[in-house]
Amino acid sequence: MHSDKRGREFYILAIFFAVFVLFLYGPLSAILILSFQGPNGGLTFPLNGVSVHWFTNLFETQAVGDFGGSFRRSLLLGLMVMIVTVVVSLLAGLAFRRGFIGATALFYLAVASLVVPSIIISLGIGVLFQQIGLQPSWFSSAFGAHLTWTLPFGVLIMFAVFNRFSPAYEEAARDLGATSWQTFRHVLLPMIAPSLIGVGLFGFTLSYDEFARTLMTAGTFNTLPLEIYGMTTNVTTPVLYALGTVTTVFSFLVIAGTLGLIVHLNRRRQRS
Amino acid sequence: MATITTSESAKAEGVKPRSFRLPPSLISYLQAAPLTLILGSFLAVPILMIGIVSFWDYDFAQMYPDFVTFNYAETLGSWVTWKTYLNTLKFAFLVWVITLFIGFWVAYFLAFHIRTTAMQMVLFLVCTVPFLTSNIIRMISWIPVLGRNGLVNSTLISADIVSEPVEWLLYSDFAVVLAMVHLYTLFMVTPIFNTLMRIDKSLVEAARDAGASSWQTLTNVILPLAKPGMAIGTIFVVTLVMADFSTVQVMSGGQSASVALMMKNQMSLLQYPAAAANAVVLLVIVLLMVATILRIVDIRKEL
To answer: Which residues in chain B have Cβ-Cβ distances shorter than 8 Å to A21?
Structure first.
């Protein structure tokens, strides 16, 4: 459809796109640079020397509350949310595919879960736990709160995947005598594995970064985003940026690892 | 052919005998049960609870089960609430217009001007990655850029464009809108990109063959077909802005307000019934907005 020569429209839009990417990454890189601020440097440019002072500062408990503990909790919570999101979304996707009474209602409940303001979920679960006399904690109430955010994404992705999935492969497998479990395990699962990994990545990162839903549901111990949110009001040194750099680099590693895994799986499937 | 199939399946059954099987209709319900259970207990019941609590009485320490309507009367009767709602709607409108503009052109560029699928995916991922990192970090990353001694101000001063630092860059409504656009644009790019990728390219060719200029193709063919994606993006952006309290709090430096921030303050004062009444009003408004958009587009068809 394209003529070989790029028109003026292309160049204008290319510049627009480049500016957009700069807008996305520019401020992040400012934080990255400023986290190497010298010991006497402040929250803004210029750099007052270069040091890793603020990174070492990060691991002294008195400077930033409980960084290690909150990081561990967020990591564990993210993994829990990831596993449950993948399994439950896959199951729901399979159910929607076959259809059942109440499917439309459940679908709209999932959509509602996506559009209900996060702070309302936080308040609702917080008050509910208080009224039934349960102690809110990151692995119970916050876990459920995070699932209300990750599950709709997972369900919508599975919905989109199965909408495009031709039943011909499974029919072929069944014609060859595979049981429904064998069809699922050896035909369906390998084909949707990259999408499932994508759902897992969503589940983990959305939970790892979530704080509005954790606000009223975390209980005694903070998750990492809550810790950072608290710091924005009372920390006035670049240790805040050091923390930002560390968590952002961690997120990048998780994303890169996941994408690598997806590419690897796709390659292997193409080869066989 | 038929004989082969039967013998094959017979062999397979010989290897693995069919065990007890559940009726297929029951399997669907079992598969849907976990989702129903989780959303029921962590979404439906808590919202029901908020509805109940919004009619309760409270004092500085705790809530008392009751049936009073003054939580609503206080919420709806105060002009502060109305102003806050208007302010939130203003943010939602501004952010919506800007993200729709940026989102459409970015998606259009990716879908129609990048020629290889691999390059499209790479550039799309470049846009996606920041959205998988922490919102708060991305918010505070504007401070060294917009602050009094920030990058923008020092550039403006050294270029002799202004003599004094521009004060309204940070801790202002401008900063709030800018940060929200920064945080939420992807939610507009993705659905529009998804819709544009599914437009049959032969439609565009047909328009060109019929003599349409590229602008006419854009306004008469592509834009109408992109509407469902725009609608879904709108749902995301509007609901995210309506629910936002952290961006407003951090980026306005406490000088601006939003409904969710008002709720959060009530919650920190343990005024749960008041916050609950606010939550009900906010929820009704958001759901009405979403329902209106859903009348225009059937999301199930767009997935």
So the answer is: 126-127
Does residue B46 belong to any structural domain of this protein? Answer: no
Tell me how many domains chain A contains.
1
Q: What is the pLDDT of residue A37?
A: 81
Q: A135 and chain B: CB distance < 8 Å anywhere?
A: no
In a domain, residue A222? The reply is yes
Contact A211 B36 (CB under 8 A): no
Name the pTM for this structure.
0.88
Scored b (16 or more CB within 10 A) or e, B89-101 reads bebbebbbebbbe
Query: Cβ distance B299 to A111 under 8 Å?
Result: yes
pLDDT digit string (tens) for chain B, length 303 residues: 344 444 444 444 444 445 566 777 788 889 999 999 999 999 999 999 999 999 998 877 778 788 888 889 888 888 889 999 999 999 999 999 999 999 999 999 999 888 888 899 899 989 988 888 888 888 888 888 888 778 888 888 888 888 888 888 888 899 999 999 999 999 999 999 989 998 888 888 888 888 888 888 888 889 988 988 999 999 999 999 999 999 999 898 888 889 999 999 998 888 899 999 999 999 999 999 999 998 877 777 766
Q: At what angle do helices B173-184 and B79-112 cross, to 10 degrees?
A: 40
Domains contained in chain B, number: 1
CA distance B166 to chain A (A): 15
Predicted pLDDT of residue A168: 86
Residues in chain B: 303
CA distance B165 to chain A (A): 14
Residues A107-121 have pLDDT tens digits of 989 999 999 999 999
Determine if residue B53 is left, alpha or beta; phi over 0 gives left, psi from -120 to 50 gives alpha, anything else beta: alpha
Tokens of A196: 């499932």
Phi, psi values for residue A219, rounded to 5°: 75, -145
Placement of tokens 């035909």 in the chain: A187
- Residue A193 domain-assigned (yes or no): yes
Please give the Cα distance from A272 to B70 (Å, whole number): 68
The count of CB pairs under 8 A between chains A and B is 270
Asked whether residue A173 is domain-assigned, the answer is yes
Residue B44 located in a structural domain: no
Best B125, B140, B194 member to test A by mutation, with max A CBs in 10 Å, is: B140
| CB neighbour class for B296 (10 Å; exposed up to 12, middle 13-18, buried from 19) | exposed
CATH label of the domain that carries residue B172: 1.10.3720.10
Please report the DSSP string for B168-207 in residue order: GGSSSHHHHHHHHHHHHTHHHHHHHHHHHHTS-HHHHHHH
- Whether residue A219 contacts residue A135, with contact meaning beta carbons closer than 8 Å, is answered with yes
The CATH number assigned to the domain holding A218 equals 1.10.3720.10
Residue-number span of the structural domain to which A81 is assigned: 66-234
Is residue B35 one of the residues assigned to a domain?
no
Task: Give the model's pLDDT for residue B20.
Answer: 62
**B228 contacts: CB under 8 Å, gap ≥ 6:** B191, B195, B297, B299, B301, B302
Please write down the long-range contacts of A268-272, taking CB distance under 8 Å and 24 or more positions apart.
Answer: A269/A190, A269/A191
In-domain check, residue A27:
no
Encode pLDDT of A7-49 as tens digits.
788 899 999 999 999 999 988 888 888 888 877 777 777 777 7
